[in-house]
């Protein structure tokens, strides 16, 4: 479905290229060239998605992300020339839904836009998340494996639902902490490791070699977007 997309990119040629690719997909696209304009335009138009360059004049993309996250939950895809892990984690910790490192193929950006829009629309409609034989139902607050209802704690469910909403995306422990526990300063990163260990005992055929809940070393965890069964291996 067409969406209202705001593009914040100070490189005029790059911004025009993004606009053309998105409009070719049928999206209504508005382009701005600095962070202040991005904040003003996002508040005025309430876009369905924001494509946001990190390095921009007046207000940089990280601060734009921080401000708009305080306002609401517009999906954000960040574009960055910074490729270090710290910069990536900072963007994700601020609430970006996805990111692309420059240089990138515009077709990949269009594909990421499509994925993020589908994910957010599915979340709004209460869609059941399915990966392999694992099902997470946010409305019924249920987890099933091969049709069998699993007994998971509320915190385990929140962590799993967070991961399942974006299969294949790595989440830091801090992001998962905030999703499951809010800003409880008495809860530590190690808590996430314990919950993931317990979840693996419940959802993994072989907890020692997880097929669903993957460790992303130096970052945190992700839910596999595809699961290869033993019959297919």
From TrEMBL:
Which Gene Ontology cellular component terms are annotated?
cytosol; protein-DNA complex
Q: Which segments constitute the Response regulatory domain?
A: 4-117
Q: Which GO terms describe its biological process?
A: regulation of DNA-templated transcription
Query: Is the keyword DNA-binding assigned to this protein?
Result: yes
| Any GO molecular function | transcription cis-regulatory region binding
Annotated InterPro entries: CheY-like_superfamily, OmpR/PhoB-type_DNA-bd, Sig_transdc_resp-reg_C-effctor, Sig_transdc_resp-reg_receiver, WalR-like, WH-like_DNA-bd_sf
Q: Does the keyword Transcription apply?
A: yes
Span-the-membrane segments of this chain are none
Check the record and name the PROSITE patterns matching this protein: OMPR_PHOB, RESPONSE_REGULATORY
- DNA-binding region range list: 126-225
SMART domains xrefs:
REC, Trans_reg_C
Span of domain OmpR/PhoB-type: 126-225
Q: Which UniProt keywords apply?
A: DNA-binding, Phosphoprotein, Transcription, Transcription regulation, Two-component regulatory system
Q: Highest taxon of the source?
A: Bacteria
Q: Which positions bear 4-aspartylphosphate?
A: 53
Name this polypeptide is given: Response regulator transcription factor
Q: Which organism is it from?
A: Kribbella pittospori
């Amino acid at each position: 479905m067409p969406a209202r997309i705001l593009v914040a990119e100070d490189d005029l040629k790059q911004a025009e290229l993004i606009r053309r690719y998105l409009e070719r997909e049928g999206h209504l696209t508005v382009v701005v060239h600095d962070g202040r304009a991005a904040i003003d335009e996002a508040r005025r138009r309430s876009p369905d998605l924001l494509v946001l360059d990190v390095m921009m004049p007046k207000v940089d993309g990280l601060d734009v992300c921080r401000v708009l996250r305080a306002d609401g939950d517009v999906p954000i895809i960040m574009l960055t020339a910074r490729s270090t892990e710290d910069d990536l984690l900072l963007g994700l910790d601020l609430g970006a839904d996805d990111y692309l490192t420059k240089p990138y193929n515009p077709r990949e950006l269009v594909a990421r836009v499509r994925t993020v829009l589908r994910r957010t629309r599915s979340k709004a409609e209460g869609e059941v998340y399915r990966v392999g034989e694992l099902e997470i139902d946010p409305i019924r607050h249920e987890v099933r494996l091969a049709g069998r209802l699993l007994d998971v704690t509320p915190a385990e469910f929140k962590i799993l639902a967070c991961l399942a909403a974006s299969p294949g995306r790595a989440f830091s422990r801090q992001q998962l902490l905030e999703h499951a526990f809010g800003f409880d300063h008495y809860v530590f990163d190690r808590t996430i490791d314990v919950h993931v260990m317990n979840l693996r005992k419940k959802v993994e055929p072989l907890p020692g070699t997880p097929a669903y809940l993957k460790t992303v070393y130096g970052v945190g965890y992700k839910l596999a977007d595809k699961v290869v069964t033993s019959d297919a291996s």
